[in-house]
Fold this protein.
Amino acid sequence: MSYCYADNVSLIKALADETRLKIIDMLSCGELCACKILEHFDITQPTLSYHMKILTDSGLVNGHREGAWTHYSLNKSNIDNILSFLAILTGPKEDCICRASEQGVSLKSAI
């Protein structure tokens, strides 16, 4: 199966932060107002906005305004896409010779 590593980099980078992982966990229970998310962290509203921008720009989270606050929810389609990508990436393959070595990259530098 063919897939593009570059298409998944922003999603994985967005997940590479403890606060953002906690936010994803919170949103797995359903839509939340930013004000409710903020209550669970010892951070300022601008810091939360920074994290939410990364999550929304990556496509993992959707946001919509309701009055003064934004409400957030998981983008299930993109969550499913990244889960599928990780399953393919880490799953068994018929051609288990490192693809990176085919491109002239040593195993040590690929890891």
The two ends are 21 Å apart (CA to CA).
